[in-house]
Amino acid sequence: MPYQTEFLLRAYRTMKTIREFEERCVKEFEGGNIPGFTHVSNGQEAVAVAACIDLSDKDIIGSTHRGHGHCIAKGCDVGGMMKEIMGRATGLCKGKGGSMHIADIDKGMLGANAIVGGGPPLCNGAALAAKTLGTKNIALSFGGDGSANQGTVLEAMNMAVVLKLPHIFIYENNGYGEGTAANYALGCESLTERNAGFGMPAECVDGLDFFATYEAIKTAIERARNGGGPTSIEAMCVRFDGHFIGDPQLYRGKDEIKLARQQQDCLKKFRERVIAEGWLQESVMNEIDETTAVAIEQAVADALAAPHPDPATDLLADVYCSY
Ligand SMILES: Cc1ncc(C[n+]2csc(CCOP(=O)(O)OP(=O)(O)O)c2C)c(N)n1
Ligand SMILES: [Mg+2]
User: Fold this and answer.
1) Domain-wise residue ranges, the chain
2) Are 149 and 191 within 8 A, CB to CB?
3) Cβ of 243 below 6 Å from ligand 1
């Protein structure tokens, strides 16, 4: 068997946790328990988990506005995340960041980012620090197909090549940037070919296939750790929900979402593959489904019971530094 059982269980458990977390975020948002804007990543779980499963807490990731899955894959506590998203004082960022600003430096999670294309430049910094200090750690930035057209991102890719930085650029191509089709917004045929033009290895993978995505990213991580510089990986994937929760999605085909859930579900594909190969028993994955549902239920109950920040003491705390 090419993969250890513990690895496969961890991959499935993490993907399932993200799915359960995101589906629950939709429900809690609709119930009025989550303030602000929330972007969920259900459908894209395989990419987040394949990218982070081999990283240590000292490796850094930079995320996006659609970052819950990246946080969970990097090891952030789901209880602390749910509290954060609900704006509670005991959340990962004391309830002040919310869905789009979750960060957890102890886990190497540099931050979700409301600025599209904000992660790659920040990760260049983390990668340059790792290279300068000789730590062998790497940085990995996530971005969407839309972010790939941002000037900041193009500049970051060029700089990463010039400085030979241990930085992996992951592009989650879910077909849309807000309501604009990815292939309309891209000025050339292939994002991957364009990224290769910067002078780095660039690969396009089926982001619904955990194993294909994992193998491509594993090679990129090895290259980065061994001084081989950056890599671009475009992972083709599907967004099951709207751009944000509440998006009417009038720009999508009539049955597009229904068909995606039926035919392009990375969790279903993972289950089918591991059962067909005889790598995992179905009953074990069913047990994981049950324990995951219980864990998310608990995270929601705890978050709803958690205190809000106190404006009298917390409003300006951590806003200004004093020297
Ligand atoms: C610099 C900047 N420009 C525009 C926006 C508005 N905006 C938020 S999300 C988004 C689309 C991003 O698309 P993509 O990178 O494909 O990510 P996805 O939402 O599909 O995950 C845009 C344009 C922003 N937040 N920041
Ligand atoms: Mg997109």
Assistant:
1) 5-314
2) no
3) yes
